[in-house]
Design a protein that fits this description.
The longest helix is centred in the middle third of the chain and has 18 residues. The protein is an alpha/beta fold and 288 residues long. It has eleven helices and eight strands. It has an eight-stranded parallel beta barrel, surrounded by seven helices. The radius of gyration is 19 Å and the shape is globular. The structure holds flavin-adenine dinucleotide. Flavin-adenine dinucleotide binds next to strand 4, strand 5 and strand 7.
């Protein structure tokens, strides 16, 4: 799968902490905030989970001197959710304690984890106010979960959802997902605590901007979020308009599952990979 690395490089800020930090600084100098993800998920052993936790702790130590607020994005299956729930919780507590005033956000994963992630989030948030969650607009249940996070005052990222889910629990049609996104975003923007609107969908962003203007929602009460390497033009645009723009910055060696999801999101990405494969196999494009 090394063949996919040239493609992966577009979406990740490097394979090691040093390179990632350089990228975060450079984003910060251009006015962007970051949410940092140490790549990895579906961890099978305690050793792997402990190593991932240690990487987050190292990252926090390295960033200690920074004055700008950081957001960390963490996958609970990386911290051992499927190995032992108590073990996973202890790993999260270590990170939450070390994070201090920085935000630790639990990424949302496949639907077999949704309820467990929300429950852990709600319970731990009562002890750690710097904890944030993510909800996915394609899930039917999100209508209720948004009520839950608003009631608990948990800062929540709203995204469309990146996993393949069955029709019985998730909208499949893009218009239906978009409608639900807009509906839930309005609730978060009006009543939620520091929500993040995470999409590159221009139609949705336009609708959301009109809503924000019509309702006089202050730019300091929410964030826009986009992925590293995706729609830099829109990222710049929103920043110039005076909105807070946070970039999801993944780094690390376990880039394959993340890259596969980015690949699946856009047919042009698949074409790009197929073209590179073709070129490499038949030696086209070489300088001879
Ligand atoms: C900050 C952030 C955090 C996220 N966290 C999670 C999470 O915790 N759990 C989860 O399930 N999902 C997460 N996602 C992914 C999300 O659920 C979607 O899968 C992804 O954002 C694509 O949806 P979209 O809203 O951008 O709309 P789309 O309709 O998919 O894309 C709109 C436009 O954006 C551009 N674009 C989108 N994706 C790509 C791509 N891969 N390559 C190139 N161009 C692209 C294209 O121009 C496309 O036309 C996150 C997304 C963001 C932005």
């Amino acid at each position: 799968m090394q063949i996919l690395y040239p493609f992966a490089k577009r979406f990740i800020a490097g394979e090691d902490l040093g390179t990632a930090i350089k990228n975060i600084h450079s984003l910060n100098q251009s006015g962007f905030l970051s949410t940092i993800d140490v790549l990895g998920e579906d961890t099978q052993t305690r050793e792997q989970a402990l190593a991932a936790k240690q990487e987050y702790l190292n990252l926090l130590d390295q960033m200690k001197a920074e004055t700008f607020p950081l957001d960390l994005s963490i996958k609970l299956t990386q911290m051992g959710l499927d190995i032992d729930r108590e073990f996973c919780r202890l790993n999260l507590v270590d990170i939450l304690e070390r994070a201090g005033h920085h935000t630790v956000r639990f990424d949302m994963e496949g639907s077999n984890t949704t309820e467990r992630i929300i429950k852990e989030g709600v319970t731990l948030h009562r002890r750690f106010r710097n904890l944030g969650l993510v909800l996915q607009a394609y899930l039917h249940r999100t209508q209720e979960d948004i009520g839950r996070v608003i009631e608990e005052g948990i800062s929540t990222r709203l995204c469309k959802g990146a996993y393949r889910e069955p029709e019985s629990i998730a909208y499949q049609d893009m218009d239906a997902i978009r409608d639900n996104f807009f509906k839930q975003a309005r609730r978060l923007l009006t009543d939620g605590f520091q929500p993040a609107i995470a999409t590159h969908d221009e139609t949705l962003i336009r609708e959301i901007l009109s809503f924000i203007e019509a309702e006089n929602i202050a730019p300091g009460t929410f964030f826009f979020e986009m992925l590293y390497g995706v729609r830099r033009d829109l990222q710049e645009d929103l920043l110039k308009k005076g909105y807070r723009m946070r970039i999801y910055v993944p780094y690390g060696k376990s880039w394959l599952p993340y890259t596969m999801r980015r690949l699946a999101e856009r047919k042009e990405n698949i074409l790009f990979v197929l073209k590179s494969l073709f070129r490499e196999t038949f030696g086209l494009g070489k300088l001879h």
